Fold this sequence. Notes:
Layout: E1 2-7, E2 10-13, E3 18-26, E4 30-39, E5 46-51, E6 57-59, E7 67-72, E8 77-82, E9 91-102, E10 105-110, E11 114-119
Parallel strand pairs: 2-11
Antiparallel strand pairs: 1-3, 3-8, 4-5, 4-9, 5-6, 7-8, 9-10, 9-11
Amino acid sequence: xxxxxxxxxxxxxxxxxxxxxxxxxxxxxxxxxxxxxxxxxxxxxxxxxxxxxxxxxxxxxxxxxxxxxxxxxxxxxxxxxxxxxxxxxxxxxxxxxxxxxxxxxxxxxxxxxxxxxxxx
Length: 120
């Protein structure tokens, strides 16, 4: 069984910064891609940032230059540094990871989500 636990959300004023963390635990052999998604009220969940096992990163156009994704493989943890936040960034942020739990089993796992609210 695998668990992903996010932390670091909260309330921040426009222009401020937050750093989200997501740690994976359980029966993990290897983690491939890790990513952050977000879902604002009344909107579909959208991909925010991805980091591949080799370190390559991708970002949604709306966050390029403001957000940075990174990971600590030794700790099975992914981070999302969010700078220059604006009210449009308000959403529940979810981490996702592609995880091998045994040599024949690979699955996509989600965290429970952490609320980020940006006030104007």
